[in-house]
Amino acid sequence: MSVIQRSIQVAYGLRVYFTQAAFDPANLVIKGLLTGNAPARTAKALVVVDESLAQAQPALIRQIEAYFAAHADALNLACTPMIVEGGERTKNSYFHVSEIHSHIDRYHIDRHAYVLAVGGGALLDMVGLAAATAHRGVRHVRIPTTTLAQCDSGVGVKNGINAFGKKNFIGTFAPPFAVVNDFQMLASLSPRDKRAGYAEAVKVASIRDAEFFAELERDAARLCEFDPAAIQHLIHRCAELHLDHIATSGDPFETGSARPLDFGHWSAHKLEQLSEYKIRHGEAVAIGLALDTIYSRDAGHLDAGSAERVLKLLEALGFELFASELLHTDSENGLLVLEGLEEFREHLGGELTITLLNAIGHGFEVHEMNLPRVIRAIDELRERHRGRARKIVRASA
Ligand SMILES: NC(=O)c1ccc[n+]([C@@H]2O[C@H](COP(=O)([O-])OP(=O)(O)OC[C@H]3O[C@@H](n4cnc5c(N)ncnc54)[C@H](O)[C@@H]3O)[C@@H](O)[C@H]2O)c1
Ligand SMILES: [Zn+2]
Q1: Ligand 1 atom index nearest CA of 91
Q2: Which residues contact 341 (CB under 8 A, 6 or more apart)?
Q3: CA-CA 20 to 30 A from 369: which of 128, 208, 236, 289?
Q4: Segments in the chain forming alpha helices (H)
Q5: C-alpha 175, offset from chain centre
Q6: Furthest C-alpha separation in the chain
Q7: Cβ distance 262 to 340 under 8 Å?
Q8: 283 ligand 1 Cβ < 6 A
């Protein structure tokens, strides 16, 4: 036997720009990005816009067209922006990926051209998959338009769609060419979607950054009222912590068995699925964080005061920490949410690896979960929820 072996090193740059009014012709961030590599050449782009965003901001499509027209010397809009359904439904079939592939083919988007996706995390995941697989990868610029996508999903290196009833079953690791976070895009978001992203900030602060956690506690009331400066700070720090992790963890493409930034996610992904995606990703993450925080405390890893701080912060930000889907059972009366553990393991393969807390700002990994203890944590969340509901009834009586 013989073997030829070489090591291949590929360096990626990950850039997240923070700006306002990205499609104002006076804003040169997108123009600079698309033409940066070859200023003498016209940069061609296919733009895909989230349908709910296009409805909520009716002037947006015209603004995008006007932006490209104003910079026609350097930019070429391949066709009228595609308007594609956003939200989880966009990830639940292959249809839209194929639709984008067909536009990439028809309008000759090559590997020096760009696919810009403007929308929520679900749309970005779906378009990211289409861009990563056409011609084995065309340049992809993400313009996230939800809090969650600006602070977490849109700034990472993963894309995907759901299949076989499992989240992100079909997907790739493909760092985007760049990400442009335009804070004004969030103006038309529903309060529910503005809030949902806060859960990812609590997640990353809980496992990585006690100071950021304290800032979130301090800003909770302002965040609840959607104070722009408080939201911008949350997004900036949360995105920075995610980028730090991707750049320095040593495993950006998750080849091992650990997903450290997926604290609280084993149950969250299952809850999203059990609710038929009526529970938003961020809302499910808030419940998942609460569950694994109580579990961390009951397993003796986390002191009761710190656990209560996590639960209180989530509640102060306006999250419900219980959903009836936690109690859905199979024909043998087993809790369906527990299947999330095995599905979580199987997504990466290898050993089950769950992140727990042993202090605010400090996550660590375990390879086993005690099921009776998980069930006790679910019971506690149900009791806490009932207690809060009783208090609200008493207060309004
Ligand atoms: N790739 C990753 O690393 C990663 C990480 C975390 C989450 N995710 C994925 O992200 C998705 C959740 O993303 P999300 O929380 O952004 O929700 P979302 O994409 O489902 O968007 C929520 C809703 O808001 C609409 N919308 C988006 N922007 C809007 C705007 N500015 N104004 C009005 N409406 C707007 C969307 O059409 C949708 O109906 C999930 O599929 C989750 O699995 C991916
Ligand atoms: Zn998440």
Answers
A1: 41
A2: 266, 352, 354, 369
A3: 208
A4: 29-35, 51-56, 60-70, 95-106, 121-133, 147-151, 191-196, 198-208, 210-224, 228-248, 265-274, 281-298, 304-316, 339-348, 371-396
A5: 14
A6: 81
A7: no
A8: no
**Measured between alpha carbons, how far is residue 183 from residues 20, 65, 154, 228, 231 in Å?**
6, 20, 13, 9, 9
DSSP string, 252-302: TT--SS--GGGTTHHHHHHHHHHTTT-S-HHHHHHHHHHHHHHHHHHTTSS
Phi, psi of 55 (to 5 degrees): -75, -40
Averaged pLDDT for residues 43-53: 98
Rounded to the nearest angstrom, the distance between the alpha carbon of 243 and the centre of ligand 2 is 14
Amino acid occupying residue 308:
E
Give the Å distances, CA to CA, from 109 to 77, 99, 137, 306, 339.
11, 14, 11, 51, 41
Burial 38-52 (b: 16+ CB within 10 A, else e): eeeeebbbbbbbbbb
What is the whole-number distance in angstroms between the Cα of residue 153 and the centre of ligand 2? 7
Digit-coded pLDDT (tens) for 272-286:
999 999 999 999 999
- Give the chain's domains with CATH numbers: 16-189 (3.40.50.1970), 193-390 (1.20.1090.10)
Atom 22 of ligand 1: nearest residue by CA position: 87
- Length of the chain measured in residues: 397
Closest residue (by CA) to atom 41 of ligand 1? 122
Ligand closest in space to the Cα of 55: 1
Angstrom distance (rounded) from CA 104 to CA 359: 48
Query: Quick one: which H or E segment has residue 181?
Result: strand 178-182
Distance CA 336, CA 326 (A): 8
Which residues have a Cβ under 8 Å from the Cβ of 274 and sit 6 or more positions away? 325, 328, 336, 337
**C-alpha span between 191 and 198 (Å, rounded):** 12
Does residue 347 register a pLDDT over 90?
no
Instruction: Give me 227's structure tokens.
Output: 């104070």
The closest-lying atom of ligand 1 relative to the alpha carbon of residue 187 is 31
Q: What is the pLDDT of residue 37?
A: 58
Name the residue of 281, 289, 348 whose CB sits within 8 Å of the most ligand 1 atoms, as the mutation to test its pocket. 281
Residue 254: the pLDDT is: 82
Q: Closest ligand 1 atom to the C-alpha of 52?
A: 37
Query: Structure pTM?
Result: 0.94
